[in-house]
Structures are given as structure tokens and as C-alpha cells.
Amino acid sequence: MAMQFVLLSLVILKFTSAFAATLNEAYGDSSCPLGTDIYQISCPEAEAIIFSMVEHAISQDSRMAASLLRLHFHDCFVNGCDASVLLDDTQDFVGEKTAGPNLNSLRGFEVIDAIKSELELICPHTVSCADILATAARDSVLLSGGPLWKVEMGRKDSFTASKNTANNNIPAPNSTVDMLVAKFENVGLTLQDMVALSGAHTIGIARCPTFTSRLQSSTISDNPFDNMEFIASLQQLCSAPDNSNIGTQLDLATPATFDNQYYVNLLSGEGLLLSDQALVNGNDETRQIVETYVQNPQFFFEDFKNSMLKMGSLGLAQSNGEIRRDCRTIN
Ligand code: HEM
Ligand SMILES: *[C@@H]1O[C@H](CO)[C@@H](O)[C@H](O)[C@H]1NC(C)=O
Q1: Which atom of ligand 1 is the closest one to the Cα of 107?
Q2: Known catalytic residues?
Q3: Is 172 a pocket residue for ligand 2 (Cβ < 6 Å)?
Q4: Which residue is closest in CA terms to ligand 2's atom 11?
Q5: H helices of 247-283, where?
Q6: Which of 39, 105, 270, 281 has the fewest CB atoms within 10 Å, i.e. is most exposed?
Q7: In the chain, count of helices (H) and strands (E)?
Q8: Residues 253-311: pLDDT tens digits?
Q9: Which numbered atom of ligand 2 lies nearest the CA of 172?
């Protein structure tokens, strides 16, 4: 994507959020704890700094866009978007970094640390780690060619983390559609949110252990969407005795571009995870949504944006927290 477009988009975003703030003042709306403009006076450079540091990180490592997007998801599914995922273990609690879905898998902590250090220099004790995660996820999608949205700000950082909740709440890649829906509903998201947000798998990588269930003969019997060539190539890829660090792109066709290709792949039986392919193999309702996104990429972008805003506002009710000075530890 042309850089000019990205910059222009952010300029437009700035105008529209100033406009929204004016509207809020005019209507005296103070009911919403999140706002798009809460750092306008306290840290006007915050969004530009986060954007340029995310852009730099992706230029060093193109996979970082995917990793930062996933960090925000794994944060929001455990007691809301409160940066609990960033906390290191302490004597009082075991953090989430060693939970099954996260261990040897989550990436990008150093990028968040670097952004936080920079923001602490420029406007100390002002921008929460949870807001940094939400903004870095948005910027990662935009820089990969995906839709743009205004990030709602004002999240607080948690005082604790929960390895158990991470294990229980984050969906497993061998899940059926019913199990996926249940995990999303458990945090207040719908089947439709689940299908739209799964489209994040249009970028990034998964390791063999996360899709071996997809390769077992028991799971590939008589499905109209089974693609034996694709499965054979994955079996080949993962045939090494220790395949735990062998990985491949979640979207083999356009691996670093945020587009609707993920859904196109599902219809040709090239979903990498069992939980990806299940969206067309296992359920009529989810398959119909997938077909809509294949036919009309704009519907996917629109739904993804809206579902990211919903996911990004999880956990606000229990918003007692702090602005951490270091994202890895409570103050
Ligand atoms: C629907 C249920 C979901 C399941 C079962 C699932 C599972 C997984 C698994 C197993 C991996 C590979 C991890 C590894 O091999 O280390 C992965 C990667 C990824 N997931 Fe999901 N995921 C789901 C939903 C989401 C959502 C909602 C998002 C974001 C909105 C997301 C974003 C990503 C990204 C971007 C990657 C690639 C990360 C990288 O390359 O570092 N996933 N997911
Ligand atoms: C998924 O894999 C886990 C760990 O290997 C296993 O305990 C669980 O039963 C599997 N779930 C399904 C639905 O196959």
C-alpha cells in the first residue's frame, strides 16, 4: 500500500475524531468511558508515535503485523482488554505468557516495550499499555492493506493476570464451530463476530502442532471441501520428528496482505487450522457468511472493523486499573 495513502488516512482520521469530540461536547455525552480523543491534550503525539514505531517494526520483520494483532486478541479474551497478557510472572500470580495458546507462540512484546518507553519519555504515565495494544493492532491491519478505524481509547491496565482464564477462554485450533461460537459468546461476541475476526488469519503464521489435528484421517473423511493435495503438502511439511518450530502461512496465497483471501482459501479447502476449515465444512450459517465475504470484500472490511471495535471494548465495566509505567509489571 502506498505510504501516502496511509498518511492521508491518518490525517483524515485526526480531523474526523476532532469532529466527533466536538459532537460529544455538543451533546454532553459522558456516558462512554472510551473516547477517540482522550489523549488529544495529554499526549497529542501518541497515535503518531505508535504508528511510526509499528511501521518500523514491520519493516524489520514483516510478520510483526500479525503478531501485534494477535496480542490484542489474546489480551481482550482474558478479563477484557487490560494488557494482562503483557504481565510477567510475579510471586502473587502466574502470568498468561505460559498459558497453552501463548507459550512459544505470542510475539511482539519487545515492540510494545519500545513503544511504551518512548511514550513514557514524551508524556509520562499517560497512555495505557492496553491502549497501545489496541492501537498497534489497528495500525498493523492498516499497514497490511486492511481497513482503517478510529481506536477508542481510555482502557486501564490490570493489576493482575490469569493463566487459567487464558487457557479456558482462548479458543483452541482443533475446535468445532459450536466450540468457537461458545468461546466468543462467553466474552460477549457473536457467531458473526467470530467469522469476521477469524479473517485475521489472512496474515501470519502457524506452527505444525497447531494444525496436526487437521491432518488426521479421522478429520478428513467425506467433507465436500477437503483438498487432499493441500493436506498432503502439510503432512510433508510437518513430517520432521520435531516439528514444533516448523510453520507456514495461515494464508498461503497472499500471506502478508490483509484481504479477503483467507475466505477464498476456505472455499477451496485451504484453511490451515481445523478451526479455519470448520467455518465452511462444519456449519451452514458460518459458511454463508464466508461466501458473502468472498463475493464482497467490503463487507468483510466493514464487519472486521466493527467486530474489532466490539472486541476492543471488552471488559470496560470492570475498569478499575492503572496506567502502567512498564507494561510487564504493575506500578
Ligand atoms: C477463531 C478462533 C481462533 C483460533 C482457534 C486461533 C488460533 C490460532 C493459532 C493456533 C495460531 C498459530 C499459533 C502458533 O502456531 O504459534 C494463530 C495465529 C494467529 N492468529 Fe488466531 N485464532 C483464532 C482467532 C483469531 C482472532 C480473533 C485474531 C485477531 C483478531 C487472530 C489473529 C491471529 C494472527 C494474526 C495469527 C498469526 C500470528 C503470528 O504470525 O505471529 N486469531 N491463531
Ligand atoms: C484438542 O486438542 C486437545 C489437546 O491436544 C485435546 O485435549 C482436546 O480433546 C482436543 N479437542 C477436540 C475437540 O478435538
Answers
A1: 41
A2: 74
A3: yes
A4: 174
A5: 261-267, 274-281
A6: 105
A7: 13, 2
A8: 999 999 999 999 999 999 999 999 999 998 999 999 999 999 999 999 999 999 999 99
A9: 1
- CATH assignment of 177-311, among 1.10.10.10, 1.10.420.10, 1.10.3720.10, 3.50.50.60: 1.10.420.10
CA 196 vs CA 258, 295, 297, 305: distances in Å: 13, 14, 11, 9
Give the residue range(s) of CATH 1.10.520.10 domains in the chain. Answer: 46-170
pTM exceeds 0.85 for this model: yes
- Which pLDDT value is given to residue 272? 97
Cβ of residue 199 lying under 6 Å from some atom of ligand 1? no
pLDDT tens for residues 88-114? 999 999 999 999 999 999 999 999 999
Give the model confidence (pLDDT) of 301-321 as tens digits.
Answer: 999 999 999 999 998 766 689
CB 200 less than 6 A from any atom of ligand 1: yes
The atom number, within ligand 2, closest to the CA of 175 reads 13
Report domain 46-170's class.
mainly alpha
CA distance linking residue 208 with residue 203, whole number of Å: 16
**Nearest protein CA to atom 8 of ligand 2, as residue:** 174
Ligand nearest to the CA of 213: 2
